[in-house]
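Weekly modeling sync, notes
Attendees: AB, CL, MP (scribe)

Item 1: holo prediction request
CL wants a bound-state model with 3-methyl-2-oxobutanoic acid before deciding which constructs to order. AB pointed out that an apo prediction alone won't tell us much about the pocket. Agreed to run with the ligand included and paste results into these notes for async review.

Input as submitted:
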Amino acid sequence: MSSTQNPAPRVPITVPSVANRKVRDGSDPLVMVTAYDAPGARIASEAGVDLILVGDSLAMVVLGYDDTLQVTVDDMAHHTAAVARAKPHPLVVADLPWLAYHVSVEDTVRNAAKLVRAGAEAVKLEGGRKRLPMVEALVDAEIPVMGHLGLTPQSVHAMGGFKVQAKTSDAARILIDDAKALQHAGCFSLVLEGVPSEVAAMVTDAVDVPTIGIGAGPDVDGQVLVYHDVLGIEDRMAPKFVRRYAELKQQSVDAIAAYAADVRGRAFPGPAESYHLASDVAETLGLYGSDT
Ligand code: KIV
């Protein structure tokens, strides 16, 4: 059998294999993309990404809210399960939504367990040193944790908007210390969002776990983008850090408009898209010229 008929099985992507992926040690950068349902997970998996993030960006790009604060653990579990049902090859990480890890350590572990039972192989949470007890409890419960520093969308009101963070030397030092503390508490990787490239490079240098950037420049150990941004499905906002690789919103509008025009012009469905009676049955019914 040729190799195209029987491709070599892909090496599983696991938390320990991700935790080792530092560009400075010769690794290729990690590729993470968000997905929120089974078709998105299949597409990401066939495209060969390393990690799928079931992000709480779900709230904004799928559910139509203005910020990420509106999604619940049940919403996240529902979408994590849809992603997991596709049995994707990438590691599946699910976001703990706002208030899922702010009230108590016990609450945090129970909420994370719901995401793991839905199919997540790791969870992500936002914030620095004030989250350490939660991170430690999750790691103790054998739930791998990805940290998230910088522009943390769940703090939109506290930050006064979706603003680039760590722009002063003091704030940069705090961010680096937070990153070290999260690593020490057991995070296997860190998302750095909306920070100057120079600061992201310093954090990346300061920690042994991989950093995955979004709006954090090139000097990190990987990149993450939101599915709907990469594919141009979300075309209302164009953050500076997004590169669109397709214009699926416009292509979709054009395709649905063409379908509507065909229906209205009686051009759809045609014979090939219709079922037909066998000719003997059609004849019995007094119809002629029908076939299967
Ligand atoms: O929810 C999300 O999509 C995220 C990424 C932007 C990192 O947290």
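Recorded for review: The first strand starts at residue 30 and ends at 34.
Action items: CL to compare against the apo run; MP to circulate these notes.
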